[in-house]
Automatic annotation (TrEMBL):
Name listed for the protein in its UniProt record: Cardiolipin synthase (CMP-forming)
KW Hydrolase (keyword) present: no
Keywords, sorted A to Z: Lipid biosynthesis, Lipid metabolism, Membrane, Mitochondrion, Mitochondrion inner membrane, Phospholipid biosynthesis, Phospholipid metabolism, Transferase, Transmembrane, Transmembrane helix
Primary localization: mitochondrion
Catalysed reaction equations from the record: a CDP-1,2-diacyl-sn-glycerol + a 1,2-diacyl-sn-glycero-3-phospho-(1'-sn-glycerol) = a cardiolipin + CMP + H(+)
Organism: Callorhinchus milii
Family: Belongs to the CDP-alcohol phosphatidyltransferase class-I family.
Length: 228
């Protein structure tokens, strides 16, 4: 029930919010947009991709990874070009989907001896800190009384996230390394200097991304104001 944001529900919630906040309606939005559904599909695909890699089915894994990449490009294109498909939830769900996908891929590629363990640990630690920060921002921006149903209600928008430029570059570099690592056993260049160079570049951009959030973290969160 809390996940079904029909117009009637939104109107009821808006009215209730106005009464509770002295005439200040709360922000509700429809979470069931095409970009958000594509993000959910990408998240759902992540464990299966990890399974394929661990079992060394690299050809199929490479094809499905390409499909996941298409969904990533498509959800961004749709959100940018159709205003009714853009949502505050999507601003958090899209990078979260990327982080979940990257986590499964890096762990499984490390198990397959295609990506070094220290690099994977570095990426996972940074992502864990960022995800914890997102949950903290959500807690801080949900007005009292804070309830679990309100906190986890995807229809209830409180903040919009804006990743830093270097973070976007880092995500792209991480995905390039994944693609190159998946292709390595298929095209026989597992021990190449090219892959090793990508390891160092990925480590550098991951560290730079973490530092950018340390410096400019407050600028990456836009708290959505409630209407008067």
């Amino acid at each position: 029930p809390i996940f079904l944001c029909t117009q009637q529900q939104s109107a009821d919630q808006l009215s209730a919010g106005s009464a509770a906040a002295g005439g200040s309606p709360e922000l509700y939005e429809n979470p069931w947009t095409i970009p958000n559904l594509l993000c959910v599909a990408r998240i759902s695909l992540s464990p299966y991709l990890g399974y394929l890699i661990v079992h060394e089915k690299f050809n199929l894994a490479l094809g499905l990874f390409a499909l996941a990449g298409v969904t990533d490009l498509l959800d961004g294109f749709i959100a940018r070009n159709w205003a009714n498909q853009k949502s505050a939830l999507g601003s958090a769900l899209d990078p979260l989907a990327d982080k979940i996908l990257i986590s499964f891929l890096y762990i499984s590629l490390t198990c397959a001896d295609l990506i070094p363990g220290p690099l994977t640990a570095m990426i996972l630690f940074r992502d864990a800190v960022l995800i914890a920060a997102v949950f903290y921002v959500r807690y801080q921006t949900v007005p009292p009384p804070r309830t679990l149903s309100k906190y986890f209600n995807p229809c209830y928008a409180t903040a919009q996230l804006k990743p830093t430029f270097i973070s976007k570059v880092n995500t792209a570099v991480q995905l390039v390394l994944v693609a190159a690592s998946l292709a390595a056993p298929v095209f026989h260049y597992v021990d190449s200097a090219f892959l090793q160079t990508l390891w160092y570049i990925t480590g550098l951009t991951t560290a730079a991304s973490a530092y950018s959030y340390y410096l400019y973290g407050r600028n990456t969160v836009q708290v959505l104001k409630r209407g008067k």
